[in-house]
Amino acid sequence: MGKVRFTTRSQVLPAVFLSSLIFSLVSSGMTHENRRIMNGAWGGEHIRLEVTGHSATIEYDCANGTIDGPLVVDRKGNFNLSGTYVREHGGPIRRGESGDAHRARYSGWTDGKKLTLTVVISDTKETVGTFTLTRGQDGRVWKCK
């Protein structure tokens, strides 16, 4: 006849812990879906960001811009996205005037509540600035007049 083997609590707990650890590592490695910057208003000093389904619009003091494509962040909350940056001027906009538009890089970090955004104009490598935004705030923007 076979022998009956008894396990003790000291043998079971490490096995359960190890199984849980392996499951967590495997399941996190299998997830290829990235997170996105949450939809809605984000605001800060001299900037307002409106995130919608697959893009965003930005209002600055005397400028505006867009961010293209889904606003995806990595597991640490970092992002590096492309878009446009358009300088504005005071006074009326003339019919047919296209503005001073440039391609731009939007990079930064978010934890879902706060967002740090650095804007660099692609062709000149000029850094427009680094902004700190908070989700749900309108932002303080002073438009050119």
What does this structure look like?
This protein has a domain at 35-135: Lipocalin (Beta Barrel). It is an alpha+beta fold. A hairpin with a 5-residue loop joins β9 and β10. The strands form two sheets. Strands 2-3-4-5-7-8-9-10 form an eight-stranded antiparallel beta barrel. A two-stranded antiparallel sheet has the order 1-6. The protein starts with 8 loop residues before the first helix and ends in a 10-residue tail after the last strand. The model is unreliable at 21-32 (pLDDT under 50). The radius of gyration is 24 Å and the shape is elongated. It has one helix and ten strands; from the N terminus they run αββββββββββ.
The percent of residues in helical segments reads 10-25%
Distance between the termini: 95 Å
Unreliable runs, pLDDT <50, ≥5 residues? 21-32
**What multimeric state do the chains show?**
single chain
Mean pLDDT: 83
**Morphology:** elongated
Largest sheet geometry? 8 strands, antiparallel, barrel
Name of the CATH first level of the domain at 35-135: Mainly Beta
Beta-strand content bin: 35-45%
Quickly give the CATH architecture of the domain at 35-135.
Beta Barrel
What's the tally of helices? 1
> What name does the CATH topology of the domain at 35-135 carry?
Lipocalin
